[in-house]
Write a structure and sequence with these properties.
Layout lengths: L4 E12 L4 E4 L2 E15 L40 E12 L4 E4 L2 E15 L6
Parallel strand pairs: 1-4, 2-5, 3-6
């Protein structure tokens, strides 16, 4: 893992929500996972069956991650070992997101969202 020091003078985050993480320091592995059902209706009706993730194939399907088969060669020159930032101002971090200041070796993030739009038919 590349070693650089991150220096942040000031950070302001208005909102953290839904399993989000604020990590300061070096991390070997970060894994984030989020699943959500997004329902938009004209009328405020709840039938009681909408929250079952098992009813949808989207949440049971295996995630296919393509393998890198190309030979990738990299060369890094670190002219300065410090990354310095004066201010960070963030409105919100949500849905298993990670705000991380520091070095990370491996990151794996996954989000699955099923959207529904149910509108009343106009009889004109």
């Amino acid at each position: 893992m590349f070693k650089r020091t991150s220096v942040v003078d000031q950070i302001k985050v208005d909102t953290f929500g839904f399993s989000s993480i604020f990590e300061i320091g070096d991390t070997s592995y970060i894994q984030g996972y989020s699943r959500a059902l997004a329902l938009q209706r004209d009328a405020e009706i709840f039938y009681g069956k909408e929250g079952n993730y098992n009813a949808y194939d989207l949440y049971r399907e295996e995630l296919i991650i393509p393998k890198i088969t190309e030979n990738i060669q990299t060369h890094y020159i670190q002219h300065k070992p410090i990354i310095k930032v004066k201010n960070i101002d963030i409105l919100g971090v949500s849905s298993s997101s990670v705000l991380h200041i520091g070095n990370t070796k491996d990151i794996s993030m996954e989000s699955r969202v099923k959207h529904f739009r149910q509108f009343v038919k106009n009889e004109e």
